[in-house]
Every structure is written in structure tokens, then in C-alpha cells.
Design a protein that fits this description.
2 helices; five-stranded antiparallel sheet; about 150 residues; single chain; 11 strands; mainly beta
């Protein structure tokens, strides 16, 4: 897959008019190539991405509006407007909207690997166990809940 030159307008429009519902958040893919994938994300209050890791990708989250809490390799951190979270491959992390308000951000990963395909598979999947199963098949490893 080769990236095409151009502009993807508006937060609500993306590649082929795709919008995914992933774990209660709205993801709109903005760019796709073999080297990277980016997507606009809307995190309603109280939503989160459970702790997981990407063994084959670096992940980045740029906060456009609001505040996100991160669990990064055992440390609690926070990113606000204009903050960039750097989540290196192999490092466990979780993302939480504890702010009480909707948060918007731009994510990207490098390289793309199997993440685009994973999002297509888990769009609107209501069973968290099925999301975890599918994620493991697409190079995203969710961590067990803390005891």
C-alpha cells in the first residue's frame, strides 16, 4: 500500500469514509501506508483503551483538545492540549479519559503492520474477550487485569 499525496479534510472524514467504533471511541483513519497509519480519535468521558503493548510498532498520541491519562510501563502520566505521548514498541501502556469531558486526539503508529486490519475486525465488537482474541492475532497484546 502506497500513500497518496493530498489532504484529508475535517475530523469526521477519512479514508474511504471509514469510521470505526472501537471500545466506545470513534476512530477515523486519516492516512494509510505500509510505513504508518494515522487516525483521529474521539474519546467520550470515561472511555479507555486497556493496558496493552505493540511488539512491532511505535505508537504516538497527540492531544488536540482535552486531557488524557496514560499508564506507561507502570507510571501514571497525563497529556493535555498539544501534548504528545510517545509509546515505544514493546512498552506496555493504557489510555484513559478520566477528565469528565470528551477528548480529541490524533494517533499514529509506525510501521502499520496489522493495525488497520485489526480495527476493521473489532469495529462494533461488543465482547471484550473477542476484542482481546482478535487483537492477539493482529500483533496487539492486551495485558491481564491487575490482581
Amino acid at each position: 500500500m502506497t500513500m497518496t499525496a493530498g489532504i484529508t479534510d475535517a475530523a469526521s472524514s477519512g479514508i474511504d469514509n471509514i469510521t470505526w467504533n472501537i471500545l466506545g471511541q470513534t476512530y477515523v483513519p486519516k492516512q494509510l501506508s505500509e510505513n504508518s497509519l494515522s487516525w483521529h480519535a474521539t474519546f467520550p468521558a470515561g472511555t479507555f483503551v486497556p493496558p496493552h503493548l505493540h511488539p512491532t510498532q511505535d505508537e504516538f498520541v497527540y492531544v488536540l483538545e482535552g486531557t488524557l491519562d496514560f499508564w506507561l510501563n507502570g507510571k501514571e502520566l497525563q497529556a493535555t492540549n498539544g501534548g504528545l505521548a510517545r509509546l515505544p514498541m514493546g512498552i506496555p501502556h493504557g489510555i484513559f479519559n478520566n477528565s469528565g469531558k470528551t477528548v480529541t486526539c490524533l494517533f499514529w503508529v509506525s510501521p502499520t503492520r496489522k493495525l488497520f486490519d485489526l480495527f476493521q475486525k473489532i469495529h462494533n465488537v461488543p465482547d471484550p474477550n473477542e476484542v482481546v482474541r482478535l487483537a492477539a492475532l493482529h500483533e496487539v497484546d492486551f495485558l491481564p487485569p491487575p490482581k
